């Protein structure tokens, strides 16, 4: 794998669980990587770490700096940034997400300002998944989905990355539990470490919105080819790259002209809606490549 340009960690950063030395050891372990590569993070449930006097998230807020002020949120729990052709939105699942709250107001403003001419891809990330057919954490954040899903759909978020569930699952484009070609592709890659979710499902049969699921240690690679095509690949950790083994592989295709009931932003269609999933390889019009390994996102520009 090429050296990444960016690391993005989607929650549960060290599992320190109030043991400060564990948090320090985790930071030291990552230092050879983080000392030379920028890293962005968002909080997970293991960053809450409740202490006396109601103090929470102390280690998270002390150890990690994010562009909250630059993105207008003024909160380390949610923010946005741009890298290459992607506008990243990092949402906080463990702070207020109601439609009357500060995070929702900021999200609406941020989405409205995205210029899809400059950043055609819109990628969101937060820790717990909304769509998940595993028994572990099933519908745990249904309230957050009901508050925020319509807004993300309105502005045409292309891909959503989550962790929390210690397994892999790729969700077909969906909105409100109904297949919808204008909805995001949801991808849970919480299988990078810790114990696995043992493959126990809430459903007797795989729901139609669940495209692929497997409880194996693994990681993913997202290669953004151009403004239309992105190649997603999920690898089991035990597989050999030289053998070209893949657990899951799919092209994600943006077709914004197919969805007309959308909002707009400066210079271009803001939503970017109307996306499909294809197996065939596109012509390479550009060479953006983004390497993603959730809960890490690794990127490089070729």
UniProtKB/TrEMBL annotation:
Top-tier EC class: hydrolase
Catalytic reaction(s) noted: a phosphate monoester + H2O = an alcohol + phosphate
GO molecular function per UniProt: acid phosphatase activity
Signal peptide (residue range): none
Domain Calcineurin-like phosphoesterase stretches: 3-168
EC numbers for this chain: 3.1.3.2
Needed co-factor(s): Zn(2+)
SUPFAM superfamilies for the chain: Metallo-dependent phosphatases (SSF56300)
InterPro entries cross-referenced by the UniProt entry: Calcineurin-like_PHP, Metallo-depent_PP-like, MPP_PAP, PAPs-like, PAPs_C
Source organism superkingdom: Eukaryota
Domain Purple acid phosphatase C-terminal stretches: 183-241
Gene3D superfamilies noted in UniProt: 3.60.21.10
Pfam families (UniProt xref): Metallophos, Metallophos_C
Coiled-coil intervals, chain numbering: none
Keywords: Glycoprotein, Signal
UniProt xrefs under PANTHER family: ACID PHOSPHATASE RELATED, PURPLE ACID PHOSPHATASE
Protein name: acid phosphatase
Phylogenetic placement of the source organism: Eukaryota, Viridiplantae, Streptophyta, Embryophyta, Tracheophyta
